[in-house]
Amino acid sequence: MTFTEWVLSVGDGTLPTQKIQHTTENDWIQIPSSLLIPESDNPISDLANIVYHDLPTSFGSMAYIKQRAIVTPTNQAVSEINSYLLNEIPGDPKTYYSSDTIASENANTSILQEQYPPEFLNSLSFNGAPEHEITLKPFTPIMLLRNLSPSNGLCNGTRILVTKLGENVIYGLIIGGTLEGSPVAIPRIVLEITNRRWPFTLRRRQFPIRLCYAMTINKSQGQTLEQIGVLLTRPVFSHGQLYVAISRVRSAKGLHIAVANTDGKYRDFTRNIVYREVFEELE
């Protein structure tokens, strides 16, 4: 089976599947050994050093940065990879802190403010929203988390290479696309964030960005790169996720997979969630 055929089989859900030890799901597939990085006690650093093998000397190159990324199912793993790689490049870090408040439109705002002080609000993380604390260096890649100016290329998911870290503005160059290399300026904005877990709307004033040496698999959709690392510290959890991860790369030599969710003889297995009825409805 060729690499292209294997990728398509992952997408179609036609590869042989099985259960593995201590699991109940019958959707585990075996990853070809040629695509796996060597087994290690620290898959994050090993995978990062393969995909970004000469980062300390090439970190400022647009051509280098735009052709590689690491993808993973969870935001926690994304943060761990990004923190590791940020420490691998030279330069002085700059940290931006958000200003977090409870929106005044909430009923009983004064009571909520007593129950949820600023320190607690700072600790909250939400999918698709910037963190309270963002640390960057010059020439780090970032990803926009909101549409700021679509006509100028500033859309949710746009990657940008930072060139200057101001106090209230971050300057950079667009990575990829028809506007590649265009200079941009990213301001702080006020984001209103709701979550049914909390009885309030959070108002967070912060840059709508995230460091993006790594990104979630879902955020990688639509991108085609030369080097992709797939970190599976836990299996994928939704339909078609594994296919999205492995199909971002142009050839087998650019795909590097680290499976760290199982041990022993099953370290080359991972879940491939495919709902065949989705394809049947399209026929």
TrEMBL record:
Classification via InterPro entries: P-loop_NTPase, Pif1-like_2B_dom
Domain of life: Eukaryota
Domain called DNA helicase Pif1-like 2B: residue spans: 119-165
A GO CC annotation given for this chain: replication fork
Entry-linked CDD domains: SF1_C_RecD
Biological process according to GO: DNA replication
Protein name: DNA helicase Pif1-like 2B domain-containing protein
Organism: Linum tenue
